[in-house]
Amino acid sequence: MNYILKQQYWGNTVYQWAISVAIVFGAILAIRLFKYFVLKRVKSWSVKTSSTWDDFIVEILEGSALPLLYITAIYFSLVNLSLPPSADKLIDAAFMVAITYFVLKVLSATFKKFIHSYIHKEEDSESKEKQAAGLLVIANIFIWMMGVIFLIDNFGYNVTTLIAGLGVGGIAIALAAQTVLGDLFSYFVIFFDRPFRIGDFIAVGDKSGVIEYIGIKTTRIRTLSGEQLVCSNTDLTNSRLHNFKVMEKRRVLFSLGVTYQTGYEQLASIPDLVKEIITSKDKVQFDRAHFSGYGDFSLNFEFVYFVLDPNYNVYMDIQQDIYLNIFKEFESCGIEFAYPTQTVFFNKEKTLTESE
Questions:
Q1: For the chain, what percentages of helix, strand and coil (3-state, to nearest 5) are there?
Q2: Do residues 73 and 125 share a domain?
Q3: What angle (nearest 5°) sits at the alpha carbon of residue 197, between those of residues 195 and 198?
Q4: Are residues 150 and 193 in the same domain?
Q5: Which of 56, 60, 289, 309 can bridge 314 by disulfide, Cβ–Cβ 3.0-4.6 Å?
């Protein structure tokens, strides 16, 4: 028996080959048992919970931890054998690449999970997920770049020069691309400070429209006239913009004037008449109605009310209804609206005296 075990094949005894095979099969058996008795139960338990983090941990175990354990078992089985130095170096390098790949994969997935967990606590999480795509791309580039530098360092290369070169190159790129970096930082401001979101109706300067897309450098707005307006993120964060989506109610102020020939009783009844019309409408909160002053050609009234709906079409429908009702009531009461005119009064007796 000892004679058979000491027989050599490809530089290794039968005993060494048996140990290597035993390591592989033992590891496979242990992993399968863990997967069946432990992971399966944890997975069924995580489905019943409301938290998503336990589901995430199960996914990490299945997608990264178990494959890495298989690779580790194969690595140790090969290390047990007497192989040429070049083969040993190749195996070590392959194992280091595998470890780095799965660790970076876990870090990337964990960062993504943190971001999505943060987003799902906010309102309108679906649009925020689209907005977070750019942030995840930047984070993944940074994570994988650091992983590559770590891998090169573990291969025995001096990364100090590489890091210094990246630093100098980064400064040069930053100076050459100040506008792009400014838009990038503005993107982070938009993402975390949330001055607006996808689907919000905003007005910037003389332009207004609905936010369609928020990218790393630009934000795209669908204007009321139909075309797409592309703005840099820096322009938007540096501008004073009106976000109508978050408006809870709309304040409406309007004025009207009646002629000077209007009688006192009619004049005094106008505030109550208009108030009654406004308060009869749904989604409307009356504020005030006053005789505001004497104009050049009219007696002026001022009215204020709130529309309890941010929708612009609802506001216009209510305003139209109120205006039509006011016109109808004034017509029935004999109250005349004023318009820019001048009335000249002649004193007939004085004119006759002067002519004599």
A1: 60, 15, 20
A2: yes
A3: 155
A4: no
A5: 309
The rounded percent of the chain whose pLDDT value lies above 70 is 77
Note whether 188 and 280 are same-domain residues. Answer: no
**Under 8 Å CB-to-CB from 105, ≥6 apart: which residues?**
63, 64
Whether the CA torsion 180, 181, 185, 191 is positive or negative: it is: positive
114-141 tens-digit pLDDT: 777 766 665 555 556 666 666 677 778 8
* Cβ-based neighbour number of residue 262 at 10 Å: 20
3-state secondary structure of 146: helix
Are residue 131 and residue 96 in the same domain, yes or no? Answer: yes
Give the span between the Cα atoms of 156 and 154, in whole angstroms. Answer: 5
CATH number at residue 303: 3.30.70.100
Distance CA 211, CA 115 (A): 22
Q: What is the pTM of this model?
A: 0.49
Looking from the CA of 315 toward its CB, the CA atoms found within 13 Å total 16
- Per residue in 204-224, pLDDT (tens digit) is 888 888 888 888 788 899 988
